[in-house]
Every structure is written in C-alpha cells, then in structure tokens.
C-alpha cells in the first residue's frame, strides 16, 4: 500500500534529485533510484477523457511491473499532487506552467505560495493569464526549464487539449465565417456557448482583441461542454470547445482559423513527485507520452463519449493494446 507523503515541502530533497531529472521533452529522465519501490497513486480530473488518460498511464506503469492505482477523481488533480495526496497527474502545459512557475519562485524564496486556483487548473480550455500569449513550443520550453524541488515535469506529448471555437458548416457558409478575424461585425447576431472556466477570460479576449460582442453568451454545463450538441442544435452559433473533442470532426464542424490565439496551449504533460519514483516509472510514463498524438486523444475522447461510450478503463485498455503499448491479456 502506498504511504502518502507529508504536505507539500518547499525545501525538501535539494538539488541532487533535481539535477538527476531531465527537464526537456524527449530526454529520458533519471531519478536517483533505478526501481520504484512502492505503489504510485495517480489522480485525474472527473471528465471521462481525463479518466481514460489516468487509466492509460496506470496501465503502462503496471505493464512495467510497477504497482499503481488511480485515485478518486479530483477537481484539482494538480493541487493533489503538490499537496502530497498523489504521485502522478497529467495536465495541460499552460496550466502546469502557470501553477509551477509560482511554486518554483516560492522555492527560491521570491514569492509566497498558496492553494492553486481550480479555475486555472481544471476544465478544458481555461486560459491562465500568465501563459495565454505563449505558443505551444514556448510554453513547453518554459515548463521544462523550471527548477523544482521534489517534483519533476516529464515529457510533453504531441496531443493537446487546447481550446478552440467551432461553428457548423451552414453557419460558416451563410456568414462567410472561417476565421476569428471575421467575427467582429458578425458577433451582434451570433450566440456563443462557453463553459464556466472559459467564460470570463474568453469574453474579455473577444471584446478587447476582436471587438466581438456576442448577441448572447450561454454558460454551458460540464455535460454540454463535453459534446457539441449546443452548436449542432443551433442553441448557439459559436461554441468554445477543445481540439480533443471528437464531436468536431464527427459532425464536420468548422474550426475557426486563428482561434488558438485566444487560448493558452494545453499540451498533455505528466507531473510526478520524485519521492520513491524510479527510472522504471519515468521510462514507462514517457513511453506513453511519446506515443500520444493528437489523433489518439481525439480517439480516446470518442471512445468515452456518446451513446455507445465505453468506460474510461476499457477505452484505455483497448487503445493501449491497439497501439501495441501493452500486451493483450
């Protein structure tokens, strides 16, 4: 059984373990010990796609001979790892950078740290203010340059859960709407659907950056945000979604060009504690991250949503076997 660690220590293990962990994507990290000697606890958010990712990483660890279990879903899984309540989580790169930058500065004595803001670390597409102006490559580079004590940022996958804006083909054709640059004069006759976590920041970006003031803005529930029913049913004409949403290609929706500039990039990245984690666990986690492409996160999203949805655990297993990442039972 895993013995959960003390609450977050800001000045713990020191620089030796830190130097032993690689902090650049594509480089194998090397903790001080070869083998993981205890059960690792993984934690993910409550949505089905996050849970599928959690099960996939747990399975890849178990396939490598490492005891691992997936904890109950958390609204703020990143905070759970930082508080010592879990060992591994997978999150978007901008959310990680926004939170871990503050932690790194606190460890260096530059700032004080406190609880993370759930709105900045959960919910697809939330845009941390400090990172929204960085592109994917810049975000990844800054994230892997952070100097952390007791935690390590592992390889960043190619797959992203970055926010975007979508419209139906009919709305696009009927309004000559293909890019966010077309939105300004059209917004007064368009209804937007936006999730709670995106709402304040995105409406500000639309107003200040594009002079876009929608006819109405509907705050979408988590259930509606997970799919694309609001836009395909014409409840709204523009829906904020994410690039991982399989409903976009499955319903031939139009992704507005330039929409990525309104959202912070969220490339999928694993964060782990360094306490008791061996080279074997890091290698297994990086193996999965290296195989996780954009089409894979879309496929996992498709597998766990819709009328014939699988359980996240089943979806993760089927995907891992299909990718030949684990052996079929």
Automatic annotation (TrEMBL):
Is Transcription one of the keywords UniProt gives this record?
Answer: no
UniProt biased composition (Low complexity): 113-128
Instruction: Give the residue range of the signal peptide.
Output: 1-29
Q: Where is this region: Disordered?
A: 103-131
Q: Does the keyword Plastid apply?
A: no
The family database entries (Gene3D superfamilies) matched by this protein are listed as: Osmoprotection protein (prox), domain 2 (3.40.190.120), Periplasmic binding protein-like II (3.40.190.10)
Q: Which domain of life is it from?
A: Bacteria
Keywords of the record: Signal
Protein's recorded name: Osmoprotectant transport system substrate-binding protein
